Amino acid sequence: MNTSLTPRTSTVLRCPAATATAPALLLRAWREEDVTALVEGHRDDPTEAPPGAPSIRNEPDALRWINLQQQAWAVGTRYAFAVLETHPDDSEGALLAHVVLKDAAPGNPSAEVGYWTAPRARGRGIAPRALEALTTWTFTTFAPTGLTHLNLLHQVTNDASCRVAQKTAYAYSHTLPPYPPMYPRAGHVHVRHVDLPATRPALRFAPGDDAGPDT
């Protein structure tokens, strides 16, 4: 990775328009101050964790995970964003979700996106809006250097992720067979190409932000 092309950790993405069920959103790099909120976001989760997902049971676990995200950002292998509620005065609110871009590098035609939503924030349309913000920023940042499409993978039993993919124009592509022990179940692959019709919101640039989608 050419680190001169690595996006800055000061990158901030915004979904400024609140909806009937969710507030305005702000996406930024993870910070050590997010440790307590990260632990709370993984507590009492009724859903099965996806294969390879980290076990975050306490603050040391959370701190290790955040440090790994920061290290990956520094070398340009992974760009992880905390998704936060934004108050009317533009201050940060509660941690709601996480979105991540993996394996995006100049010259790579494809990369992968992923996400999770805190249990108390589910069912409010948080994940589609955050994923759309990440997708718009990713294509704006990396398409000029060769990125043509993004992949979204999930277990076939994860119906919620299928719905998020559909809402954000990630079309079903194919099903991957199980690959135990890491992937004990089959998986869906959804794909979104950079050359979709220009129906997505334009990017907004503002002081202090690298980019933000008006969603």
- Give the N-terminus to C-terminus distance in angstroms: 31 Å
CA radius of gyration: 17 Å
Quick one: overall form?
globular
Could you report the average pLDDT, rounded to the nearest whole number?
A: 85
Report on the biggest sheet: 8 strands, mixed
Question: What would your notes on this structure say?
Answer:
Strand 5, helix 3 and strand 6 form a beta-alpha-beta unit. The strands form two sheets. An eight-stranded mixed sheet has the order 1-2-3-4-5-6-8-7, sandwiched between helices. By secondary structure, the protein is an alpha+beta fold. The chain starts with 11 loop residues before the first strand and ends with a strand.
Highlighted features:
215 residues; alpha+beta; two-stranded antiparallel sheet; 4 helices; 10 strands; 24% helix
Write the layout of secondary structure elements.
Elements: E1 12-15, E2 24-29, H1 35-42, H2 59-75, E3 78-86, E4 92-102, E5 110-117, H3 126-142, E6 149-155, H4 159-167, E7 171-176, E8 187-193, E9 203-204, E10 212-213
Parallel strand pairs: 5-6
Antiparallel strand pairs: 1-2, 2-3, 3-4, 4-5, 6-8, 7-8, 9-10
Helix pairs in contact: 1-2
Short description:
The chain has 215 residues and is of the alpha+beta class. It has helices at residues 35-42, 59-75, 126-142, 159-167; strands at residues 12-15, 24-29, 78-86, 92-102, 110-117, 149-155, 171-176, 187-193, 203-204, 212-213.
